[in-house]
Structure formats: C-alpha cells, structure tokens
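Final report, Chapter 2: Outcomes

The project's central promise was a pipeline that accepts a single protein chain and returns its three-dimensional structure in a standardized token representation, suitable for archiving and comparison. That pipeline is now operational. To close this chapter, we reproduce one record exactly as it appears in the project archive, with the input sequence first and the structure output second.
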Amino acid sequence: MRAVLMTAAGEPDVLQPQEILHPTIQRPTELLIRLKAAGINPIDTKLRRRGTFYPERLPTILGCDGAGVVEAVGAAVQRFKVGDEVYFCNGGLGDHPGNYADFTTVDEHFAAAKPRSISFAEAAAAPLVLITAWEALHDRGRLQAGQKVLIHAGAGGVGHVALQLARLQGAQVCTTVGSQEKANFVQQFGVDKVILYRQTDFAQAVLNWTNGEGVDLVFDSVGGATLSQSFPATRIYGDVVTILDADPATDWKTARQRNLRTSFELMLTPMLKGLTVAQQHQAHILEQCAQLIDRGQLKIQVHQRFPLEEAATAHRTLEAGSMTGKLVLVIDRS
C-alpha cells in the first residue's frame, strides 16, 4: 500500500512516500480501515521536527486523525461492520502507525460513525480538535450556560470548534484573532465579541466587556505570554485551561491571588498512557459531535486539501501559519 513514512526527525523532507506492506488485524476487536483522508495537526509537525515518543521505532507513519471505510473486522467486533464509514483519532505518535497511508487499524471502541452530512476530508479534519475543545470546555472548564468565556485563536483548528461548542452550551463568547479576515471568519459562529489582539490589549478589552470582573473561563491554545496575560482577564475563582506547556516566566502569582483553577488539556494522554476507558470517552465525544454536525449545529472548516504524496508540502503550509481551520490529506478520491 501507499504510505508516507517519517524516516528521521527533521524538516518536512523526511516525509517520504513509499510502498509498504498492508496492515492486518492483530486483535479481535480491531477494524481494518481503508482510509479516505487524514487530518494534519500541529502535533504531527512537532513530532516530525523533534522525534516521536518512540524514536527507536523509525521509520513510522504520522497522523492521528483519520476517516475511512471499514474493510474488515476482527472476530469480536460488535459495533461496526464492513462498509461502515468511521472517523477517529488513533495512532501516529510513533508506536501504532498513523493515518498518512491507504490503510490502518483501530480498535472499534476508539472509533465513531462518521457524520453522514460531511465529506471524508471534513471528517478527517475533525477528531483531535473536537476532542480537545470538548474536553477543555466541558471536562476541564466545566462551562455552564450563561457564563462568559474567552477563547484564544478563534479562527484556528481548535479555536473555531471551541467557539461553536461554547455557543451551543449557551455561553457568551469572546475570542482573539490576528487579522480582520479572521475576525470576519469567526463572526459566522455568533461570537459576542472579537478582539484583534495585535491592535488591542486583549485583557483590558475583556475587562471592559465584563464590567471589570473578567470571564468565567479562558481557553488558551496559544501559550507563552498569552497564558499569563489571561490571568487578570479571568474573574476571581474562575477557570483557565491551556493546551500548551506553561512558559517558565508564567505569572502564577496573579493566578494564585485570584484563586484561579488552572488546568492542562492534552487529549493525547489516553493514547500515550493506554487509558482504554478514557479513549472510549473520547470516541463518545465524537459520537455526540457527529450528531451536532448532522443537525447543522457544528461546522468543520477545511482550509486546504493535499494529495497523500504531498504531506511534506502540507507540513510546510501548517508551519507557515495564518490559516483558518484545518489541513487535510486526501488519500482515496473514489
């Protein structure tokens, strides 16, 4: 089968299209998936640059996000049958092969039925960002109807999903973006306030919006100084959730003085730690999101599609930044 192999850590050119052996079902609860598309995420470019979590297992196939059709099932599979369309976040960290390939395998408990109303490319763009945004807002941030939330980078892959989930929860939503083009993009999601952070002190703008109190929840997908700058924009006893490492210069004193509950969200933890129940929870999140998508309440923005063989070009595009939504590898056009 065709696959794009990461042959070493380094620049995008280490991603090489090759022909390799077809994967086979190894456990009775596994599905063999004919992949139609694979999502590309920042974790893919980070692993390519610095090395995977299992550097001794190179070459490997990157790509956590996938969507495709069930080609075969293990003897104990109960939830799916041959021909079913599925989407999932599984593999691609250096241990289990990822989704930059024609075929992959995934345990049936970690997959969800693909939303019927969208393409395979849109479905492949969705799993990691859906799970990240859902866990950050609901599982970590405990967002409630009527609360006010600040979502950083609202035009990004995680951000544009988080905006929609927060609105669906009944929250009032404020977001930061870097350009007027991105401001125009996020307006379609019904946000209450858009802040152009390059032109405006976002913390002060948030305080003005909340009559000096701050928001109930901040969701940070930017990191660096943005995390510290978010603390004074959060109400006393509020929540801050970040998906990135805290900078050594993070202003924890302000967070402590305001009694902020700070949380880290890394949706890869269940996969890295082999937490089966948590991975099943994530599949359930995908099931709930599929219903929202099919009801027209949740939209996945695909910025650009690339053929499988152009994975290196896709990585360069992602690392260049300034996108709205996600990048996708289209694997099977049939």
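Archive annotation: The longest strand covers residues 30-40.
This record, like all others produced under the grant, will remain available to the consortium after the project formally closes.
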